[in-house]
Every structure is written in C-alpha cells, then in structure tokens.
Amino acid sequence: MNNPPNRNCNIGKPDPRLTRREFLGGALAFAALGACRTERELPGELLGPNQALGHKLRAGGFAAPSGAERVPVVIVGGGVAGLSAGWKLLRSGEGGFVVLDLESSAGGNAAWGENEVSRYPWGAHYLPVPGPHARAVRELLRELKVINGEKDGRPVYDEDVLCHAPEERLYIHGRWQDGLYPRLGASAADLAERDRFHAEIAALRRRVGRDGRPAFAIPMENSSRDHELLALDRVSMAAWLDQNGYRSPGLRWYVEYACRDDFGGTLAEVSAWAGLHYYAARGEGADDEFLVWPEGNGFLVRKLAEALGPRVRTGALAFDVAEDEDGVRVDYYDAATGAVRRILAKHAIVCAPRFVARRIVKPLREDTSPSAFDYAPWFVANLTVDDPPPGTGAAPAWDNVLYSGEGLGYVDATPQSFSLNRRRAVWTYYRPLTGNPGAQRAAAFKRSLAEWREMCLSDLERALPGLRSRVTRLDAWVWGHAMVLPKPGFIWGPERLAAAKPLGAIHFAHSDLSGFSIFEEANDRGVRAAEAVLAALGKSFRSSL
User: Fold this and answer.
1) pLDDT category, 67, cuts 50, 70, 90?
2) Between 3.50.50.60, 2.60.120.200, 3.10.105.10, 3.40.190.10, what CATH number should domain 51-113+296-373+490-536 receive?
3) How would you classify the pairing of strands 399-402 and 327-334?
4) pTM, 2 dp
5) At the N or C end, where does the chain have fewer CB atoms within 10 A?
6) Are the beta carbons of 388 and 470 closer than 8 angstroms?
C-alpha cells in the first residue's frame, strides 16, 4: 500500500538476459519447494479496524446524550486528515478543539504495530520526499526535524530517515533482479516501449496547462484544469495504453503494478488521469527519494497525536453531526463507558471517509442516491522472520516485488539496518483485493487467519524457498475500505467536487476528497479545512497552502 512512484532507476543500465540454465534453475528450485515445506502452526492474530464499534452505526438505537460540553471546533476522525487539521489549528493558536476517533489509537490507514524485533506498518509505509507544492507537509517535516536545513534552495533531510537500502528488486523468471521494470527476458521492442513511456511521462512532468498550472501536481488541487488533461479522467488506464500503442506485457504489468499499489485497482478500474498522476506528479532526481521509518507513516501520525495530546479522544464513535442555531452539535458513543455524549461547537471538521460521512452527517444521511465513492479492500501481513532468506539473484532490498504475484510483495520494516547478516527481521506483505470491491470485501471478512496465512506464504515462497520454516510469527490485517478507488470519471466528476464543499459550519477533510489515498492529500485536506475554520472564527494565521 503506497509503494514508491517514479521507479525509473533501470533506464540506461545494462539489461541482463535470462539464460536457459538460469531459467531452469529457478524452475527446479520452485518445484522442490513443496518437498522441503515444513507445516506447523504459526502464532499470530487476525486484526483490523474496529468493526464491532463501527457497525453500531448500522444498528443505531443510541441513547439520548446526557449533558453537553462546548468547544470552538470538533474534528470527527483521527486519521491523517483529522490529525493534520488539529495540528494546523494548534500551531495557529487555536487549542479549543477535540478529535474523536473510534479506534483505540489514532492514525487511520497509517496504523502500526510493534514486537520485540521492530515496529512495523499496517498500512501506508513511506513518504516520498515532498515536492514544492506540498508546503504543509514540508512545514510538518521541519517541525519534526526530518527537514533540518536547506542547500541550494532545496530542503536537507535527516539522513537517518532517507532510504539507504537498495530501493527495490523484482522477482521474475525464477530469480530476483534489481529495479522494478521487468528487464529479465525483455525484448528490444519491450525496452523501446519502456523508453517511450518514460519519455512521455517526462514530457507530462514538464507540461503546463492553459491555466498556467502544472499538468499534474501533489496536492492534486494544484493540478491544471485544462480540459484536455481532465479528459484523461474519463477513460481507463487500460484504454489510454491501448490508444497510445503500448502493447508490451512487461510495460503493462509495470503500469498495472502502480495502479494496484497506489489505488488498489487494475488498469481497467483506474482512470488514466490517476494512473498518469502516479508517475508524472513528482519530480526527478532528489525528489525520487523516500522517507522511511520502521512503522511507516505510523511515525508521522504518532508524532501528530502526541502533539495534540488529550484533545484526541479514542474509542469515540460519532454517530450524529448536524447544524443547530449556534453552530454544530456532535453526538458520540464513548466505548470505554458506554455513555452517549454531546459536543456543541462553532464548527465541525468531518475527517471520516465519505461512506461514513454519509451515515453520520444529517444532510448526507438524508441523501439515499447511489454514491460514486467506491473503496478497495486490502490484506496486509507482518511476518517475523528468523535468518531471512535472500533469494536467488539481486540482493534483498527495501521493497521486494513479485512479478505477476497475487500480492505486491513485501517491504522490509527496518531498511536502515538492512544487512545480509541480520538474524531477525519483520517483513510487511501487501495484497490489494482487486476485482468487484463489494464481493472481495465480503469474501475477505469470511476468511480465517489460517487461510490468510496460507495465501501469504504460498505467494512469497515461490520467490523465497524455505521461507515458511523461518517465519516465527504471522499477524494479519484486513482493510475492508482501505482507500478510495479512482474509477474513470470519478476524480473530476461532480460528486467528488461537491463532496469537498462545506455544508454551513460542517467542513469536510479526507483523502477521499482528492480521489486517491496518499499522505500529502490527506494532510492537505485537513489543513485546508482548518484554515477555513480559522478564517470563519476570525483568527489570524499564516497559510500553509
């Protein structure tokens, strides 16, 4: 989930060819896997968002609140957007707010865990070095001392969090290769298509629309509204590749990997605007570097939550948000006590995903029309591995990808300490559940831990013979609604555009409102909403946008 974009590190490098001996060697190793497999019961847990508490929204029947407290601002949802909204309010001198989150800890899909070996992510696991448009993210990173100066007009990042391990490798044809594009076995025609694609992406990076904005930018609100560019949203990425003569299976896999990785969808399910944005919205050179922590973006949400302190209330299920004569009232269920409480505020910022907002915000609850917002389900596992196997071919990397695998592969949770001599590691395995989201979600919630464990290990074992016997623990997490799916026509369609607008004193902020789920978008949405609230309250502030 959220793996690196712009992986063009293979351009201009030698193209090693797969020999018949190498191919047969990999095939024999895979065939022998079944014979050496050690079957045993692994310890672990099947985890996920708090469904029991969340499903209380469906059941309803909440008691009337007893009493009410007053605060200037209430934030509903403690993911990246909600925490970013609180951060902006606090650093602008407005400390009169509370953040309500139904989980036991804030963070949304940047949730994380920890064991005796390492911290590890349950969702978003890295942050690309943010570009110049992501000013609020850069402000946050300066505050956290991740940025500690400037050189030649560019931020200088803490060397301890820049990814220094080899960034990625790919398992294909029975061995690992450096880099992500499938070079092993690629023909001259395949490589020519790859080069043409990257040249087209480079041109899109430089392109400026008729309105003077960059064709693609992060945050996406800074992108051009040129009608020729917005038209890309009305066709799928598959159709765009077809229309532009991209037929190479390797290139199409490479692009589909990006769609599965950042959006949880296939080439046919993702709009061409979204697919091209993945590659073209970030710069080249230093901007292709990645900020990584063992717990992934859990580091960022942990620091944000710590800064907000007791203003963050967990186990708090907001179930009714409505305007009243003095502003907004928010009723919520306190899971710790079973009590129903009410907050009266001047403004509310609803930082919940849209499918939740439609259940809890009164005007949206009254709208029974079908929604264009759809969500990709995901499966994530964290494996504790003794004596991690390196595999055949290229050395282990931070991101280890499987060509044509059911899953995307695995990320090493501790890349900065990576060493072939390390005796224990935690690997995070990612698997988007593509296809019909509703059917995939229903099937996912029926699977047992044993079934998920087998799906994960079987996928990884073909690239890492003997892995099963080295895994000492496997914990699994199912995200039913991991991220919004940018289907053709959605990002620049009327429903998403309307959803970002406030309803009186009720403001909205979530990465859903950008059409795709990355840290910079959630942060931007939270900061935008906070600045709108500060302006309405008559507070002075320095804009981060």
Assistant:
1) confident
2) 3.50.50.60
3) unpaired
4) 0.91
5) C
6) yes
